[in-house]
Amino acid sequence: MALGSIPTFLLFISTFFFMVLGDDAVGNSVKYPLVVSTWPFKEAVKAAWKAVDGGLSAVDAVVEGCSTCEELRCDGTVGPGGSPDENGETTIDALVMNGVTMEVGAVAAMRYVKDGIRAARLVMQHTEHTLLVGEKASVFAISMGLPGPSNLSSSESIEKWTKWKENHCQPNFWKNVVPAGSCGPYHPKGKVDVSEECTKTNLMGVAELRSSHISPHNHDTISMTVIDKMGHVAVGTSTNGATYKIPGRVGDGPIAGSSAYADNDVGACGATGDGDIMMRFLPCYQVVESMRLGMEPRAAAKDAIYRIARKFPNFVGAVFAVNKNGEHGGACHGWTFQYSVRSPEMDDVEVFTVFP
Ligand SMILES: *[C@@H]1O[C@H](CO)[C@@H](O)[C@H](O)[C@H]1NC(C)=O
């Protein structure tokens, strides 16, 4: 073979392999696996990366990642020991979704069990249901082998709650109730009650003053996407919800399409923020459907956030979007958002910052 024809020969060979293996196979080895998570929860991303790079499925890697955040009590808003409700109790919301089968497992307002994402996976893998709630979710999780019942309070969460009680249970999530500006029990404001009627104007004044002084609460959630070596997509979330929530409150965390969504044909999305508002818009479902119609991840993320901001200009929240090409982007409103990524071309987890 003449020396000059070697490059032509190599070109021919590589073209041949490209044609045989196809675009996906060649691309996949570079694009996948991939882990994306809300916030700089680096240890969680590392744990998911280790799992998926070692050959675990996307679902199992998501569980490893979110579970790490539960153990580390990331930001105090994931796992036990954070976000006390009005009774001082910590409860857990979590979800896992398999983008191949569209199966979902979730638990909400789960008491006495620390392992939210593992409980969610048990719901997905061992029941025909999607969502179990409250103490019944705890009984299920424990019966399926998770540790419990355990005390989910920590000295920090009890201290936080005690200070809140001393501050007349402010801030809280009530509206149009009396008494305003102090602890309950609360009653609807419209209710005719002589003693309440007399002080109504004053109490309403207090209520208005209060709401104008509330800053964004802690609403951080870990919402994670993993694409495994097979190119399979899964998402998971875990949170202990909003601090000082009314007992029984469930946020966006365990709601598929809101805090997270995955479809193997398209990609995935993760969300964090004011779940009470965000769950009315199913932003992650919106993101995935927009990408299905051809939008780039960042544009899809911005569109989903805009749809919420248009109706709730003061809402605080963020989403990230990932498509099957491994492209990602984020959008946020009311705060600066960060999300973490680990891909084959990175030496370590990289944190991306998104400004409102
Ligand atoms: C749970 O733990 C908290 C914080 O350590 C503690 O204050 C509380 O008394 C415990 N509750 C029970 C029922 O043991």
TrEMBL record:
Q: Which organism is it from?
A: Manihot esculenta
Binding-site residues for substrate, renumbered to this chain: 249-252, 272-275
Q: Which domain of life is it from?
A: Eukaryota
Q: What is this protein called?
A: beta-aspartyl-peptidase
Site Cleavage: give positions: 220-221
> What InterPro entries does the annotation carry?
Ntn_hydrolases_N, Peptidase_T2
Question: Which Gene Ontology cellular component terms are annotated?
Answer: cytoplasm
Q: Which Gene3D superfamilies match?
A: (Glycosyl)asparaginase
Annotated catalysed reactions: Cleavage of a beta-linked Asp residue from the N-terminus of a polypeptide
